[in-house]
Design a protein that fits this description.
heterodimer; A: about 170 residues; alpha+beta; 60s Ribosomal Protein L30, Chain: A; 2 domains; 4-stranded mixed β-sheet; 4 strands; about 40% helix; disordered N terminus; B: about 450 residues; mainly beta; Rossmann fold; Neuraminidase; 8-stranded mixed β-sheet; 4-stranded antiparallel β-sheet; globular
């Protein structure tokens, strides 16, 4: 074994030296956006037509997609027309549209598919007159299923785009 | 003593214990992996001799790790020590070949461990070809800090593997992965790094944001990964030693994911989604100089460089379903290489350059497979409800991947399989685990 090799080994040992030890990164669990899909604080009352709770439950905050598709179905179209008119009346809100996929697919492809779905909803809402500056999209791929069984009943609910409202702070 | 100081002392020195092995043996001990090993080669591994009292625990543990490394390949089989006729009581005592032949030990591994007064370990080992009655290669000696004992065991096993197979080893290596806890609809994910066999787990991030698909740099000191820290998927670069991280440059309104280093470690190739369309880009890791490599309305993602850095294999649904394509590292025309039934994703070029590992989805099942770079000789290695995300061992002989079970309690775990499709094994992890990326062999 040459001296050169010894030198390389020494460097390697030093490189290893600074590795973090197991307790070094404290963990307080998930926080922040996207953790549960929807921020449940400050939803207001469902009886208030200007509230987020009203939008989520009575307008309908989500639309569903067929396998591998990002096409807006007739049912989705009806929901999105309602979303658009609500957003046009309630201009203090902006929205992040979350695109999701079911678990049947690779992680990367599902991220791209979720982006397509979110964008399809965004484009529809813009076409209905909602200002593009009020809408942002995010994909969660298959990372945040709503339903956790592994059959089509659950998959159908998970292939979704959810319009998540927040008071407009400029997106 | 600080950890840094302790490891600064961990000088891994290799010196010769024996002169070169005699070269006049007729039938050398050899496993040709390419022929597909059916019958594992039996080896005898007497517990390493403890040269002093403090060394006995290390001697026992190091011996067990070496045995586990070798047996875990499926290429070797350990002969139970209870069958031994000879006892090895001194590292330098002559080998009683007849005693080892009698129990059909093809290979004999002997060694010793000593704890020195400065706290370091001195580990010696020799490998013998029993039926040729000769040492196979030189004896080796390692000097290392006590907390590096597992690495030394892996280095001994790598030397044995390498001498018998003629291939590089892969035991002294690490895996970065995503540790997962919590329910399926609110999974907490943390980046973690561990030895290839699941030992020495260290966390690199907390679970405050979703993290996905870490990828080691070619030298194993940095990791690219995707994090939702900002609420949107974005690529980060993390230094393993300091766990310092920074986001790669991007622009508002885009999402970036699926990063991978170029073989020289200076460039990152990745996916960028904008207005619902996902394409492949490359960027200097140091910043600046972004180049768009694909420009189609279809999904292009999961890029991986060839080992010479000249080409990129990726997946695209431009034909209507996910398929694999190869293009120049500068973009341009791509040629499709996957043509079988089903869909293909997450291609990864092997470190040897000859094969591409991939995830295949067909008739409701997922497979890990390999094919030649021209798409020929496709071979499926696994099948399950959900297998995905292959990563190559440093020597290109083994693939680690994610296998997720189905249903409400479904969870991912890491598995390995060799490229002949044999020796499927679960990698032990304390939590559910996904998205492994195998480091190069450590220096």
């Amino acid at each position: 074994m040459s001296h050169l090799t010894k030198a390389v080994l020494l460097v390697a040992a030093l490189g290893l030296a600074a590795c973090s030890s197991p307790g070094r990164i404290p963990d307080d669990g998930p926080t922040g956006p996207g953790v549960n899909g929807i921020d449940s604080s400050g939803l207001g009352s469902v009886s208030d037509p200007r509230s987020i709770a009203y939008f989520n439950q009575l307008v309908g905050d989500r639309v569903l997609f067929a396998v591998d598709e990002s096409t807006i179905s007739p049912e989705a179209r009806a929901t999105l027309v309602q979303q658009a008119s609500w957003l046009l009346e309630n201009t203090e809100y902006s929205a992040i549209i979350e695109g999701h996929a079911d678990e049947q697919g690779t992680r990367e492809y599902n991220l791209a598919l979720g982006a397509r779905r979110a964008s399809a909803v965004q484009q529809f809402l813009i076409a209905q007159g909602v200002a593009a500056s009020r809408l942002r999209t995010v994909t969660f791929g298959k990372e945040r299923p709503l339903e956790i069984c592994s059959n089509e009943t659950c998959y159908a609910q998970n292939r979704r785009a959810v319009t998540v409202l927040r008071v407009d702070t400029g997106v | 003593m600080t950890r840094l100081a302790a490891l600064a002392l961990a000088i891994l020195s290799l010196i010769l214990v024996l002169p070169a092995a005699a070269q006049d043996r007729s039938g050398p001990l050899r496993i040709e992996i390419t022929e597909g090993v059916i019958e594992p080669l039996p080896f005898a591994l007497p517990e390493f001799v403890a040269e002093n009292g403090g060394a006995s625990g290390f001697a026992r543990d190091i011996t067990r790790v070496i045995a586990a490394d070798l047996s875990g390949t499926g290429l070797f089989r350990e002969i139970p020590p209870g069958a031994f006729i000879s006892r090895v009581t001194s590292f330098d005592s002559p080998v009683q070949y007849a005693d080892w032949k009698a129990i059909n030990a093809q290979a004999l591994i002997t060694g010793s461990v000593e704890t020195r007064s400065d706290g370091r370990l001195v580990i010696k080992f020799r490998l013998f070809d029993v039926f040729s009655e000769a040492p196979l290669g030189e004896g080796l000696q390692f000097v290392a800090g006590q907390d590096s004992w597992r690495r030394i065991a892996h280095k001994v096993a790598d030397a044995v593997y390498s001498r018998i197979t003629g291939e590089g080893g892969y035991f002294d290596s690490r895996v970065v992965f995503v540790s997962e806890t919590g329910p399926k609809n609110a999974r907490a994910k943390r980046l973690a790094v561990m030895d290839y066999d699941g030992a020495n787990v260290e966390f690199l991030t907390d679970s405050s944001a979703i993290v996905l698909a870490p990828r080691f740099s070619p030298t194993g000191d940095r990791v690219l990964y995707t994090s939702y820290e900002t609420g949107f998927p974005r690529i980060y670069l993390l230094d393993v030693a300091s766990v310092a991280r920074r986001a790669l440059e991007d622009q508002v309104g885009t999402m970036t994911f699926s990063p991978r280093f170029s073989p020289d470690g200076r460039t990152v190739v990745y996916s960028l989604s904008q207005n619902g369309n996902t394409d492949i880009y490359r960027m200097d890791v140091g910043g600046g100089s972004v180049r768009r490599l694909t420009e189609t309305p279809s999904i292009e993602t999961a890029p991986s460089f060839s080992p010479d850095g000249s080409q990129i294999v990726f997946e695209s649904d431009r034909s209507g379903t996910q398929q694999l394509y190869i293009m120049s590292a500068n973009g341009g025309e791509a040629r499709r290489i996957s043509f079988g039934p089903g869909r293909y994703g997450t291609p990864v070029w092997s470190p040897r350059g000859d094969l591409i590992a991939f995830t295949k989805q067909n008739q409701g099942r997922f497979h890990i497979g390999v094919m030649r770079t021209d798409g020929s000789e496709e071979r499926l290695l696994t099948a399950s409800f959900l297998d995905e995300g292959p990563t190559w061992s440093p020597n290109g002989r083994v693939i680690m991947f994610t296998r997720e079970t189905q249903g409400e309690t479904g969870a991912p775990a890491l598995y390995t399989v060799d490229i002949s499709g044999r020796n499927l094994r679960r990698v032990p992890t304390q939590t559910a685990a996904s998205d492994p990326s195998w480091s190069p062999l450590l220096p």
